[in-house]
Amino acid sequence: MNEKNESRRDFLKTAVAGAGAVATAGVAPPAAAQNAPMQMDHGAGLGAFFNPEEATTIAALTERLMPGAPGKPGARDAGVLNYIDLALAGAYSDMQEFYRHGLTQLDAYSRKTHNAAFARLSERQQDEIITALESGKADGFTWPTAREFFNTLRTHTMEGMFADPIYGGNRDFAGWRLVGFPGAQPQFTQTEMQSKAAYKGGTVVGLQATRKV
Amino acid sequence: MAVERTDVVIVGVGGAGGIVAAELAKAGMRVIGLERGPRLKTQDFEPHDELRYFQRQDLRPNWKKQPVTWRTNANERARPLQTLNYGAQAGGGTVHYGALSWRLHEDDFRARSNTIARYGARAIPEDSALTDWPLSYADLEPYYERAEYEIGVSGKAGNLKGTKIAGGNVLESPRQREYPLPALIPDRCGLIFDDAAKKLGYHPFSSPRAILSQAYKGRPGCTYCGFCQAFGCHVGAKSSILVTKLPEADATGNFRLYTGTMVYRVNSDNSGRATGVSYYGPDGSDNTVEAELVILAPFTYDNTRLLLLSKSAKFPDGLANSSGWAGKGFMTHLRARVQVAFDNEFINVYMGPSAQKHSIDDFNSDNFDHGGLGFIRGAQISVGPVALEGGPIGATTMNPPPGIPRWGAAYRDFFAKYYARHAAIAAQIEDLPYPHQTIDLDPNVRDQWGLPAPRITYDSRRPNENARVEFMNRKMEEMGHATGANLVWRSPETGGAPGGHHMGGTRMGTDPKNSVVNRYGQSWDVPNLFLLGSSTFPTMGSGFNPTLTIQALAYMSADAIVNRYRKSPGPLI
Fold it and tell me: Are A154 and B407 a contacting pair at CB < 8 A?
């Protein structure tokens, strides 16, 4: 990993830590996730798309959408921020303005209703805002609409949780381990397919890495 | 600008075009196939990657570059659909499809006549264009058999020459021959579905699929990895056109495939005869193929779009559109779904061929008495993952049960517990044709080539359809409870959006006044122009996936062209 990528890694870590300071104080990610090596990031630059403030907000938002708890990895543990940041610098580059506008509107709404930036609010306040986004009741949103912004954030959070780790999320298969998905297995036997038990195939298969279940 | 001559030009080399390309080339005709996507190989489909293929639709058209727009009625501005469920490469949709391979029932070809005979003309919604097909099941049966054997379909007969066989679909119309391959092995989804269906007195069976249950014609059997719908098969066990008909076409030496090409017009002369097509090459060049015979076999929308883009002095409303029916009678399969989840047993829904694994035919077509129900026709009901592929990203599209939000700790816990313990029972519901459900050219949205996007004007929320959807939801809830699941819940309505399997727009018929093509897909107006694919379906007929019927019709058209049209070019009817 080159110097640029190390800088970017620090950048994202800072954003995540900042987001968690208020919202998730006292909840530590699972040890496995803390110790996991950073996933590759396709050589993109420092803060591939988000600026520090945006990254902090996205980290907080996605962590509320998929919160972590002991033994239950969430968005922060899985690296969802990293996933979205890379996606917006690459495959979803045509959605940069969508995100930038959405975050600007969110910030305005957060300051209007709670007098502070989203990432500075309590979990309960953050959940109130997300509920208002989901229901379309958050005012002041033109483009994207509150609902569009919520739906996109939810979709991208789920992608970051459950897409293969090479895309920058699902760190150390955190999402797949959470739900019991073994990745792209080359085959299943009749016994495995007809079993009422959890699959115990032994190895999670990713595009570039495997891991014992 | 290149101009070249050939006997036959085929636009779109997918489920229908690939068959006709191979059959005509084998008969010695020189064929050029124009395909807007690339030609991929089996080894291109490994590794399986849910984000790339399911979520980002890598084997399907890019909705931003090749938009298809939709509005519920003529007063709205249409917006691009963000999921396009058809192919974007040689082989078309057969590359990424779930490979369900159904024959329609005898009744399905006579939906109008049979409805009137059994329930009276008033049972048909006044504004519907429900009609009989211009051919019968018996006419198509030999071609269904040929498609099953040449392409490779796994299943178990339920009605062999009139003898009912338990374990197969006993409600299917009589077949002359057993499937070429035994049914695929059931997985846990299939077993719980069969058990529930039998408790309720229904007749479940392993859905017939163009996926090899054992080695066949040099290809290996399925490995049950689960990556079917939305994915290409990494061992070639899915009987896509890429591994079945294209090698046959190649072997003739008479077939040339031009990939990365976009046909924008069918050319015609003053007499109204088609002279060939014009297309943009991969380098942006503007080219022409002149041909004796022009065959259009792109996905549904583009048959209509190409006619509308090919206006001439003789056909001011679109080529081959003297009837005015081009674009009318657009239909899609409606969807209803009930999820089941178990506290104490696993389903592991990601295992095994992914789409519509086991089915019942008991509530399809006119297989049940509609007296007093307030609607006609029915649905195929099946079991599988909610997204027809079993990965976790697909499963996050599932609405959780009432009381559980779509995000937050409660959602995380729901999803963590039930992802591997849930399954979906889904109804694929017939849609009646209505003349005002249309495809036309969007005046506001253009594709990457600057052509107007196909625009769908469609709303599934009509009284007959709503009643049919509600009936199916109730039947599926009963089935869900019969599985013994701890949680049974419905999916929400879809806001009138087009569902799966888009059909219609260039309907076939017996009368040139109210149809675009005859039973062979031959234009009434332009006899050297054929249109193939589900755009020719005049009525859906059932809740069955259309591909095998598209393929059987393609074989029938190819036969008619080789054995009759070639000797005496002109109207086949």
Answer: yes
Query: Nearest-CA distance from B495 to chain A in Å?
Result: 15
Yes or no, beta carbons of B223 and A186 under 8 Å apart: yes
Q: How far is A108 from chain B (nearest CA, A)?
A: 23
Is B502 tagged catalytic?
Answer: yes
Say yes or no for a CB contact (<8 Å) between B187 and A193: yes
Mutate to test the interface with B, among A181, A189, A200 (most CBs of B within 10 A): A181
* Per-residue pLDDT at A35 exceeds 60: no
Mutate to test the interface with A, among B82, B396, B414, B421 (most CBs of A within 10 A): B396
Can you give the pLDDT at residue A9?
A: 66
Strand ranges inside B386-485, DSSP E: 422-429, 438-446, 452-457
pLDDT of B81-134, one tens digit each? Answer: 999 999 999 999 999 999 999 999 999 999 999 999 999 999 999 999 999 999
Domain extents for chain B? 3-565
Residue among B49, B352, B408 whose CB faces A127 most closely: B408
Please check whether the domain covering B3-565 is classified as CATH 3.50.50.60.
Answer: yes
CA distance B372 to B219: 50
According to the 3-state scheme, what is the secondary structure of chain A?
A: CCHHHHHHHHHHHHHHHHHHHHHCCCCCCCHHHHHCCCCCCCCCCCCCCCCHHHHHHHHHHHHHHCCCECCECCHHHHCHHHHHHHHHHCCCHHHHHHHHHHHHHHHHHHHHHHCCCHHHCCHHHHHHHHHHHHHCCCCCCCCCCHHHHHHHHHHHHHHHHHCCHHHCCCHHHHHHHHHCCCECCCCCCHHHHCCCCCCCCCEEECCCCEEEC
Q: What percent of chain B is modeled with pLDDT above 70? A: 100
DSSP state of B337: E
- Total-model pTM: 0.94
The mean pLDDT value for B159-165 works out to 98
Whether residue A44 is predicted with pLDDT greater than 70 in this model: the reply is no
Averaged pLDDT, A185-206: 93
What is the per-residue pLDDT for A5?
Answer: 61
Where are the alpha helices (H) located in B158-239, listed in sequence order? 188-199
For chain A, which residues lie within 8 Å of any Cβ of chain B, measuring from their own Cβ? 64-67, 69, 72, 74, 91, 94, 127, 130, 134, 154-155, 157-159, 161-164, 167, 175-176, 178-182, 184-190, 192-199, 207
Tracing tokens 């600008």 back to the chain, one arrives at B1
Share of chain A above pLDDT 70, in %: 79
Over 90: is that where the pLDDT of A25 sits?
no
Average pLDDT value for residue range B283-305? 98
For residue B35, the model assigns a pLDDT of: 98
- Residue of A134, A158, A195 to mutate, interface with B, max B Cβ within 10 Å: A158
3-state secondary structure of B573: coil
Q: How far is A163 from chain B (nearest CA, A)?
A: 6
ipTM for the whole predicted complex goes beyond 0.85: yes
Is-contact B68 B301, C-beta < 8 A?
Answer: yes
